[in-house]
Amino acid sequence: MASEKTLALLRRRLCDPSFVYSAFKSSPNGNYSKLKFLISNTITEACNNSVLLLGPRGCGKGAVVDLVLEDLKSELPEIISVARLNGLLHSDDNCAVKEIARQLCMENKLLFSKMASFDDNSQFMIDMLRECGLAHKMIIFVLEEFDLFTQGKQRLLYSLLDAMQTLTSHSVVIGISCRMDADQLLEKRVRSRFSHKKLLFTPLTTDDMQRLLEHLLYLPTDSSLPSDYLKEFNSNINNILSDNKFKEILDLLLAADNSISNIQRFLYQAISSMHFQTELLTLDDLKSAFSYHQRQPMLDKLQDASILELYILVCMNRLESREQDSYTFNSVMKEYKAIQDAYKTSDNYSKSVCQRAFEHLIERELISFANNRLRNLSVEYRPVRLLLSSQELYQSLKSNASCPAILQRLLNYETYR
Amino acid sequence: MYVTPERSMKKSSAKTPKSPICSPRTPGSVASRRSLRFSSSPQTPKSEKYKRNNEDSLENTGSSKKCRRSLLAPEKTPSKRPSVAPATPNPPESRKKRRHASLKAKKHDKKRCYYKKVVYDGVKFEVDDDVYVKRRECAESDEDDPEQEECRICFETGSSLMIECDDCLGGFHLRCLRPPLRKIPEGDWICEFCCAMKSGKKILLPTPPKGKKRQRTAREKLLSGDLWAARIERLWKEPNGTYWLKCCWYLIPEETTAGRQPHNLRRELYRTNHVSDIEMESVLRHCYVMKPREFGQANSEGDDVFYCEYEYDVHWHSFKRLVDVVDGENDEEAGIDEDWKYPNDPDCDTEDDSDFDDDTLGKFSSQDIPTHELAANSRRGRIFGLHKIGLKKIPEHIRLHKPTDLERAKSLLLLAALPKTLPCRTKEMEEITSFIKGAICKNHCLGRSLYIHGVPGTGKTMTVHTVLKNLRAEVDIGRMRAYNFVEVNGLKLASPENIYRVIYEALSGHRVGWKKALSILNERFSEGTKISKEENRPCILLVDELDLLLTRNQSVLYNIFDWPTKSDSKLIVIGIANTMDLPEKFLPRISSRMGIQRLCFGPYNHQQLKEIISSRLKGIDVFEEQAIEFASRKVAAMSGDARRALEICRRAAEAADYRLNQTSLSSKSSTEGKHLVGMDDVESAIHEVFQAPHIQIMKTSSRLSKIMLAAMVHELYRSGLGEVIFQKLATTICSICSSNREVPPGWDTLMKVGCKLGECRIILSEEGAKHRLQKLQLNFPSEDVTFALKDCSEIPWLSKYI
C-alpha cells in the first residue's frame, strides 16, 4: 500500500517539470531568478524587453519559462497575458499572426474571426498591444523553436520587435531555441531591434546533479505515509546515492547525455521496475534501467534478422571491403551465388526469396538506396549502400546463436576470397 | 509662494530626498515630474495611504477663480491673470477636437444649433471644458456655494493666512491652530484632527456656531459625492431655446466598483465612457480636470482642480490609462490617426459625416453591449471589443513605485524612449528639412523623391520623424502649408501591392481592394482628381524598408516613383532602406524617376555614440565615464548601431541592478552609497551581446561529446578536409578511447551524441537516417573547440588530440 503510494508520488514528481526545476528556484545565479527578475522588472518599469533562451534540449528552457510565468501570474493576477507560438507550427507569418490574435482574443474574452486577413490581424495585434499598455497589462510572447521563425522574411519578428519600440506597448518577447547561432539567423534590421539578451541553459554540474537527485528521490517527511517506512525509504536512498556502483552507473549515463530530461527518463524507468514486495528502490532496479537505457538499436535490429538476411549483409560487406562503392541487388546476388558455389551451404535460396529478404532489409533501414535519383527503376537495379559498419556486423554475428559459423569467417574478405 | 488674503497653502517645496514620488510612473511624464509639487511628500510608502494627496494640495485656493457666477464675486484677489476668459486647462491636446467642433458649429441644423462656445449666465462654456453638475437629489442651491473655504475651527472666512491639511483637505487659519503657526511649514502638514483620528483617538470636531451652517465648497461636495463633474462634449440649442449639452461624466474613486484604492490621490477623478445629455440649467460652474502632466504644472486654477489619469469603463468596471497621458511623441502620427480611427462607413456618403461618426462613437461608448458582436480582429481600423480591455483595479506597484537612479537610467536608455533632441544628426536633419521645404513651397508643390540609406540603427526613421514634427510645428503657426503625411513600412505589408490600399486608406479613410485603390490613386496623382475635400494638400509619403517592395516586374516601385513626376501630383516620396546600391538594382526607368537625391546615414562613430548615451543620461549619475566610453567604442568598432549601444548600456544597468538586488536580499541591509555601473558590467554586457555562447556549451557538454569534438578536430586536421564521415569518426573515437583506457562507446551511442551536437549547431550534420555515411562538419572554427577543451579537468588526455 505504502509502496504504491510512493510509486505514484515519485512518478508524478518525475513527470512534472515544474517540480523538477523547482530544485533550482532559490539559487541566485540560476536562470530562474534571472528570468524572473527580468520580467518582473519589465512589468514594474512598464517597458519592453526581449530575451533569448539558448541551450541544448532537455535543459529546462521551456520549463523555467513556465515556472516563471506561473509564479508571476499568481503574484500579479490579471496583468500578464501570454501568447505562445511554436516554430514548428507557426513558422508561417500569416498563421503566426492569426494564432497570436486568437490567443489574445481568448485571453481577453473577445470574439475572434477566422476570416480576418494578415493586415487585420497584425493591426489588431498592434492595437491590442497599445490598449493593454494603457491598461497596464503586459503581453508576453513565448516563441518556442525560435530558429524556425527566422525562415522567410521574418515579418512576424520584425513587427513584434518594432512594436516594442513605442512607449505605449508593454511586452516581452521570449525566444527559446536550442541552436547556439539563433541570434545570428536574424536579418540585420531585425537583429538591430532585438535586445540581444541571452540566457544560457547548460547541463547540470555534478553538485547540482546530486542536489537534483536528492530533491527527486527523498520522500517528504510530512506526507501521509507511515513514518517508519519513510525513514527506511529515505535511508535506503541515502545508501544508494552514496554507493560507488551507483556513481559509476550515473557517470556512464551522463557521459552520453547529461541533460536533465535524460536523468528524468532514467529514474522513471528505475522506479517503474521497483518491486512491491521489497517496497524500496534497489540498486538492481537502477542497473536494469541503465541497461535498458543503453540499448543499441542497430544491434537489436540485427539480432532478429534471418540467416538469409545475414548472408546478404555479409555479401554486401565483402563487396565494400573490395572497395566496390556502388553495387546493386544483382551484384550482391552474384556474390551470394559465388559463396554458395564455393562453400555449398544449406542456405541456398532462389533469387526471388533473396529479393524478398533484400526488400525486408531496406524496410528495416539496415541498408538503403545510395541516392534518390533513379526512383522509377525497379529495386534490383538501384544502387544500394550498407548502413552498418563491419564491426557492428561482426559483433552481432558473434552474439547471434543461430548464426552459422561460416558466416563469421566469411565476413573477413581478406582471408576468404 | 502664493499668499492670498483668504487662504494660502503651504508651499510644498520641501523636498526630502526619500520622498516617494506619488504620481504613477508613466515613462512619458518623467520630465514633468520634476515640478515642485510632485516630489514633496517625505513619507515612506507605508504611511502613505492618505498622504498621497499632498501633491495636489492646491496651493492657492482662492487666488484666481476666473469663472464665477455673478452673484458671488469675492473680494479682489491679487491674481495676475485677467479674470475674464475661462482658461481651458488642457490646451494642446484638444486642438483637433476643437477644429471638429467648429466645423459642427458652422453647420446649421434645422432643429438644433450646435455651438462651440456658449455664454450662459454670463459664463462662457466651451466644448472640452469641465464643469460641476448639480445632482438632482441634493438640492443645495447656488447661494450656498461658497467660493472661499472657511476655517474649520472658527468658521470664518477671513483674510488671514490659511493652511490646508494634506489629509482631509480642510482649511485652517494659522492663528486658529493650537499652537498657532507662524508661517506655513515646509513639507506635509496634517491637522490635529486627522492626527488624532489616525492614532485612534476620538475627537470632537469643532461644531459651527449656532445659526451658521458649515458651508462646503463645491470641491468638497464633489469629493463626497454630492455633486457631479462632467466634461462638455457638445453644446447645442434646442428649437425651444433651451441650451443642452452632451457630457461625459467623471467619477470619484468611491463610486467605482473597486472603491478607493490606496494609491488614489485625494483629488483624483476617473473619466468614464458614460455620456448623457443634460440641460445647461444644471451646470454649476467650471472646474478643471487635468492630466498628470498639466496637473504637475498647474498652480493657479484655484480649488477646483482635479487630477485624472484613468478612464473607467462603466460597463466592464475596468480602468485604463487615458491615451494622451503617454504619447507626447505621437503627435505627428495623430494626423493620420484621426483620419482612420473613426472612419466613416464606406457605404455611407461623406456629406453628413460629422453627425454620423459621432453617433457611431456614441454607440461604442454609451450603449450597452452591441446586440451582435463583431469579431475583434476582423476589420482594420474599426476594432470591436477592445474597450473591454482594462484592469479591474489599478495595480499599486505602478503608482507607488519610486524609481531608483538605476531604473530611471534604464528607462531613459530604452529604445522606445525618444529623446527630446536628436544629437549628431543635425546635418542630415537640415538636409531633409530643406528637401521637404523645397518641395512644398508657396502654393504649388513639386513632386520629388529622396532616397535615404544607412545601416540599421543609425536613426534614419527617427530623423525623418523629428523633421516632420518640427515642420508640423511650423504648420501650426502658419509658416508652412498644411500637408498630409503617410507612413508605410514595407515589412509590415502582407504583400507589396497592399501599399496602395494602405496609402489610400490613410488619405481617405476608406478601405478598398488594392486594385481599386491603385486606380483611384492613379487618378489622383496623375490626373489630379481629388479624393475628398481637403485633398488639395501636398502629401508626404514615407516608405520604410523600401527594398521589400521589390517585386518581379517592379511595378509597385515604378508607380510610387512615377507619381511624383506628374505635374499635379503634389506627392513627395521619401524612401528608406539599408543598402546603398538599392537604386542600382531597380530597372533603369525606375532609378531615373527616382532622381539622384540620396542621403547617407553613416554609422555613428564612438564620439557620437557617447554623446547619444550621455545626452540621454543627463542628470543621472549612475554610469562611470569610462564605461560609456568603452561601450561606445566597442559598438562603433563593430557596427555603429545606436540601438546596440543603448541596449548594451541598459543591459549593464540591469546587471548592476540585479547585483544590487541580490546583495540587498542577502545582507538585508541596503548598503548606502553610490552604485555605479562600472566597466565590469559593460564588459559582461558586451560579452553577452557579441559573443556566441557555443564555447560555454562545449565546456559543459557531456563527456562523450567532448571526446567526439576533439576527435573531430583531430580527424579534420589529419585529413585536411572540411568534413568527416561518421564511420571514420567513430573508428577514430574508438581507437582514441581504447588507447586512453576509456570504455569505447557503441556506435549507436555515438550517433545519439552526434545528433545532440548537431541540434545545437555546434556541428553540422546530415540527417541521421544515413547512419554510418553521415557527413559531419564543425560549425565553428576549430580554434574555438581547442580553446574550450584545452584545459578540461575531466578528461585531461584530450589536449593531446587538439
TrEMBL record, chain A:
> What residues does the Origin recognition complex subunit 4 C-terminal domain cover?
212-395
Q: Which GO terms describe its cellular component?
A: nuclear origin of replication recognition complex
Q: Does the keyword Nucleus apply?
A: yes
Could you tell me which InterPro entries the record lists for this protein? ATPase_AAA_core, ORC4, ORC4_C, P-loop_NTPase
Ranges of residues in domain ATPase AAA-type core? 51-197
Q: Which GO terms describe its molecular function?
A: ATP binding; ATP hydrolysis activity; DNA replication origin binding
Q: Does the keyword Hydrolase apply?
A: no
Q: Where, subcellularly, is it found?
A: Nucleus
Record keywords, A-Z: ATP-binding, DNA replication, DNA-binding, Nucleotide-binding, Nucleus
Q: Name one GO biological process term.
A: DNA replication initiation
Task: Report the function annotation for this chain.
Answer: Component of the origin recognition complex (ORC) that binds origins of replication. DNA-binding is ATP-dependent. The specific DNA sequences that define origins of replication have not been identified yet. ORC is required to assemble the pre-replication complex necessary to initiate DNA replication.
Q: Which family does it belong to?
A: Belongs to the ORC4 family.
Q: What is this protein called?
A: Origin of replication complex subunit 4
Q: Which organism is it from?
A: Platanthera zijinensis
UniProtKB/TrEMBL annotation, chain B:
Q: Does the keyword Transferase apply?
A: no
GO process annotations (BP) = DNA replication initiation; mitotic DNA replication checkpoint signaling; regulation of DNA-templated transcription
Q: Where in the cell is it found?
A: Nucleus
**GO MF term list:** ATP binding; ATP hydrolysis activity; chromatin binding; DNA replication origin binding; double-stranded methylated DNA binding; zinc ion binding
**One GO cellular component, as annotated:** nuclear origin of replication recognition complex
Q: What PANTHER family does this protein's entry cite? A: CELL DIVISION CONTROL PROTEIN 6-RELATED, ORIGIN RECOGNITION COMPLEX SUBUNIT 1
Q: How does it assemble?
A: Component of the origin recognition complex (ORC) composed of at least ORC1, ORC2, ORC3, ORC4, ORC5 and ORC6. ORC is regulated in a cell-cycle and development dependent manner. It is sequentially assembled at the exit from anaphase of mitosis and disassembled as cells enter S phase. Binds unmodified and methylated histone H3.
Please give the family membership noted in the entry: Belongs to the ORC1 family.
According to its UniProt entry, what is the function of this protein?
Component of the origin recognition complex (ORC) that binds origins of replication. DNA-binding is ATP-dependent, however specific DNA sequences that define origins of replication have not been identified so far. ORC is required to assemble the pre-replication complex necessary to initiate DNA replication.
Q: What is the protein name given in its UniProt record?
A: Origin recognition complex subunit 1
- Name of the gene this protein is made from: ATXR5
